[in-house]
Structures are given as structure tokens and as C-alpha cells.
Amino acid sequence: MRKVLQRKLRYASVVFAVAVAVALMPLIAQAVLVDFEGFADGNAVGPVGIATFSVGTPGASTGFIAGVGAPQTAFTPNDTPNPATNAGTRFLTDETAGPSAALNYFVDFSIPVTSLSMDLYDYRVDGGPAAGDTATLTVFKDALRTMPVGSATFTIPSANPVDGNVQTLSILAPSGTILAASLIFSTGDVGTGIDNINFAPVPEPSTLLLLGLGLVGAGFVSGGRGRRKEMQ
């Protein structure tokens, strides 16, 4: 009877340890999407969860929400990214009564993230840039932006992209974790926007600890059972 009870306890321990590990795995790889859909047209936007957005100079000025369609906020003939299916009804821009400003975009994270991607709207030859000009997304390991760990660049081709064009910039395998990001234009373009910011936060230590304990527990119980079989 005692042996039966011990076997049941060992089995329950393994099941529990595996269940903990399986339950925590999605938390480790779970990506976050910021698409600005919950904001009103014209709202100033600073922190959104662990991400803080600014334009012009890091942390100096907030960006603003533009609603898709008229009235015009970011670019002409209206605020409609092409293809429009990427944008939903809201995106982030650098002004509220444009297009007149041509500012860079910045993102700061309160905890490190492991990847970053975003959509850039309407960088083209009509608001300042020429063919060959670039928009470069650079990610940094430090908040002061002195240690870059990855970059992605869009170059305006000789055939001018359509009005409201959408370009996705992705850094999926940086050489380190990310605390800050800068989207810098070689030549500023009035009336741009960004949207669909995707990032994957580094798991909190408590999550990793629970996962580790679960896996160690499963291995300990399994290993102990194997040793007992050899002794028999």
C-alpha cells in the first residue's frame, strides 16, 4: 500500500512540474502589439505599457494619434495608409495639424525586450526626401542609445512609392536585449507615421525561476525513479 502511495505521489509531482513548465512557456515568448486603436484622434501619446513613445528628441515630446481618413493629420490626400488593411483606424504621427513637421521617432522600454518591428507610413519623395534617402530603425542595449545591437533600413527607390505607402522594419535577432529604439530619417519627410509596434519582453526573473523549478522538479523525480529501478 505504501509503495502504491509513493508511486502516485511521484506521478503527481511529475504532472505538476510539467504543467507548471507548459503553463509558463507562453509567457516567455509572448509578443506585445501596440496598434494605438484605443486612442482618440489627436491624443498625445507617451507611455503605452512598457513602451514610451517620443518624437524629435528622445523623451522630449510626445507623438500624436492620427485617425485613418479625413480630416488630414499626417499626410495627403488623407490619412489612409496604402494598403489600408495594415493600419486599422489609428496610428502615431509627429504632429496634430500637418503635414508640416519632419521629426524622428523614438521608443524607450521600461524593461528589456528581445525583438522589435514596426510599420512606417508614407516615407517617400514629396515631403523633403529624394530617391536613395533612408529611414533606419536602430535598437540599443542601453537607454542612452550608445550601444546599438541591431538595425533595419528602408531606402526610397528610384520609382517613388505610393502615397501612404507602408514599410515594415524588423529586428528579430539583435545581438543583445533592447532598452531603446530610434527611427532616424536621413532626410526628414513631413507627414509620416508609425504603427503596429511589435516587441517581445524579456521574462521577469520570477517567471524564469518558476519555470526552472518546475523543470528541475520533473528531472529530479524522473531521475530518482530511474535510480531506484537500477537498484532493484
Give keywords.
12-stranded antiparallel beta sheet, 232 residues, 2 helices, alpha+beta
Explain this structure.
The chain has 232 residues and is of the alpha+beta class. The chain contains two helices and twelve strands, in the order αββββββββββββα. Strands 1, 2, 3, 4, 5, 6, 7, 8, 9, 10, 11 and 12 form a twelve-stranded antiparallel sheet that branches. β8 (134-140) and β9 (148-155) form a beta hairpin. The longest helix is centred in the first third of the chain and has 28 residues, at 2-29. It is globular and about 80 Å long. Residues 206-211 have low confidence and may be disordered.
Question: How do the strands and helices of this protein lay out in sequence?
Answer:
Blueprint: H1 2-29, E1 32-34, E2 44-45, E3 47-48, E4 51-55, E5 63-67, E6 90-93, E7 105-121, E8 134-140, E9 148-155, E10 166-171, E11 178-185, E12 193-201, H2 205-231
Antiparallel strand pairs: 1-12, 2-5, 3-4, 4-7, 5-6, 6-12, 7-10, 7-11, 7-12, 8-9, 8-11
Helix pairs in contact: 1-2
